[in-house]
Amino acid sequence: MELFAVDDIPEIEPGDDLAALIRERVDLRPDDVVCVASTVVSKTEGRIADLDDFPAGPRAREIAARLSELDDREKDPRFAQAVLEESVELLMESPFLLTETRFGHVGVNAGIDRSNVPGGDLLLLPKRPSESAAGIQEELPADQVIVTDTCGRPFRYGQRGVAIGWDGMPASRDWRGQLDRDGREMGVTVQNVIDELAAAANLVAGEGNGGTPVVVVRGFEFGDLPGSQNHFRELEGDYVRQALRGWSHNPQEGEA
Amino acid sequence: MELFAVDDIPEIEPGDDLAALIRERVDLRPDDVVCVASTVVSKTEGRIADLDDFPAGPRAREIAARLSELDDREKDPRFAQAVLEESVELLMESPFLLTETRFGHVGVNAGIDRSNVPGGDLLLLPKRPSESAAGIQEELPADQVIVTDTCGRPFRYGQRGVAIGWDGMPASRDWRGQLDRDGREMGVTVQNVIDELAAAANLVAGEGNGGTPVVVVRGFEFGDLPGSQNHFRELEGDYVRQALRGWSHNPQEGEA
Ligand SMILES: Nc1nc2c(ncn2[C@@H]2O[C@H](COP(=O)(O)OP(=O)(O)O)[C@@H](O)[C@H]2O)c(=O)[nH]1
Ligand SMILES: Nc1nc2c(ncn2[C@@H]2O[C@H](COP(=O)(O)OP(=O)(O)O)[C@@H](O)[C@H]2O)c(=O)[nH]1
Ligand SMILES: [Mn+2]
Ligand SMILES: [Mn+2]
Ligand SMILES: [Mn+2]
Ligand SMILES: [Mn+2]
């Protein structure tokens, strides 16, 4: 399996034909997986916004005031408003905003970026990243497209690449019922390959001004296994989400 | 960047020299990252156990009884005892056991596997996976070694490869203070590259009886960035962990 970045992608503007820009720069094969950073998908879809587009309501002002108290830096209530508008549920409102976006992804600040946003204050995630992936895939010789983002997670430090949209492949490969080396049936193993592919792509794309938002994975073999399209957990079965429902942040707690 | 599995690794037995088995099968370069599945590290370290090695105390019996009630299958109290003995904290005891292992990793059942364990009932994770990684690295021409496992996570379905031990490289690359494409300093971006490498390796290793527990990553460039060795979060700053402290599972909650 091989991963390489597509070189010389220009600065992406609203309305750009991302698939054409990719096609012109790389000879793709049908079984390639093309991983595209959400940043550039958002740019082509015109998801650049200004803080002034989000006049803050009372809820956003309350949230921003609480967050401003926590550290010394003033938080912009318009930013909180943008996060609320991009979300269907607020899982945590202090010490940061953890929400479920309209398409099911749980992340901090609804994935709104304030980096790599020339020409605006904010870059919102694509509205329906799997539809974005399908639109790009249609115009590419490669059969599989993943839209990626970078985000943090509980229990482990740092951020890693994740898939937020995908097309042309299942989200997971399902090893249940396969035999292990001891001839024993495996019980619980569903391997989320799109997140693993996104993580791998992020090693090549990086986070800075490297300018490599498109990474091709060549030679990945899904194998002859059943697939599953489940990717974002529902509340049922997501016990951490259930725990967060009853919890509120106490700045004293958990300090040494 | 390229990933390939090391072929023809035999069934690993306690005491086997894993580094020698790898060295004989692949021409490694100094800048390769060698990802080794915890399964085979555990086997060389004799971490195979029988349920009878863990006579259940009252706590384990209580836990197993509660778990048995939840679904129809009888849970073995000796298994709960093994999980408790491998852990320093129980984060969730229903509907499954989520614990912090002695080396800091948060996972279900303390990462104890019941698959791919010829010759025993249980395979425990290596005691100190970063020391295991260092021991293997010392005997390899490659400078970087990661010990991997597969585990699930909140919010997202399925499992993915993660790093539980590493040597010869930082856990994360720290983009803070670097400039983005807009000349803006990036604030919060710490990229956990060892987890991303482990996820990538898992795409090649798979979960079944494929027999590819060792994957080489060639051509990964850490780049000229500061590194951080933080990998497992402390309670302070891990709000999900704090939320789990006050929570207990209610089988009715979260159901449709
Ligand atoms: N060529 C090019 N690269 C971009 C553009 N926008 C972002 N990038 C690069 O894409 C990569 C990922 O950017 P990032 O902001 O981390 O995207 P995210 O992970 O989807 O939030 C970085 O290497 C950026 O330099 C663009 O418009 N053109
Ligand atoms: N050659 C060989 N492969 C093994 C052995 N044990 C496990 N594997 C393979 O290593 C891969 C990962 O195994 P798995 O049990 O998922 O390891 P884990 O992710 O560390 O828990 C699979 O392809 C297994 O078939 C062994 O002793 N020898
Ligand atoms: Mn982003
Ligand atoms: Mn990123
Ligand atoms: Mn395991
Ligand atoms: Mn595995």
CATH architecture of the largest domain in chain A: 2-Layer Sandwich
Radius of gyration of chain A: 20 Å
Number of DSSP strand runs of chain A: 13
Poorly predicted runs of chain A are: none
Structural class of chain A: alpha+beta
Q: What does the average pLDDT of chain A come to?
A: 93
CATH topology call of the largest domain in chain A? 60s Ribosomal Protein L30, Chain: A
> Could you tell me how far the N terminus lies from the C terminus of chain A, measured between alpha carbons in angstroms?
45 Å
The small molecules bound here are: guanosine-5'-diphosphate, manganese (II) ion
Biggest protein-protein contact in the assembly: A-B, 77 and 77 residues
Structurally, how many domains make up the residues of chain A?
Answer: 2
Largest sheet of chain A: 5 strands, mixed
CATH homology superfamily of the largest domain in chain A: CofE-like
Oligomer: homodimer
Strand content of chain A: 15-25%
CATH class of the largest domain in chain A: Alpha Beta
Shape of chain A: globular
Helix fraction of chain A, binned, reads: 25-40%
> Taking strands numbered 1, 2, ... along the chain, how are they ordered across the largest sheet of chain A?
1-12-2-8-9
Give the number of helices of chain A: 7
Q: Helix and strand succession of chain A?
A: EHEHEHHEEEEHEEEEHEEH
Short description:
The structure is a homodimer of 256-residue chains. By secondary structure, chain A is of the alpha+beta class.
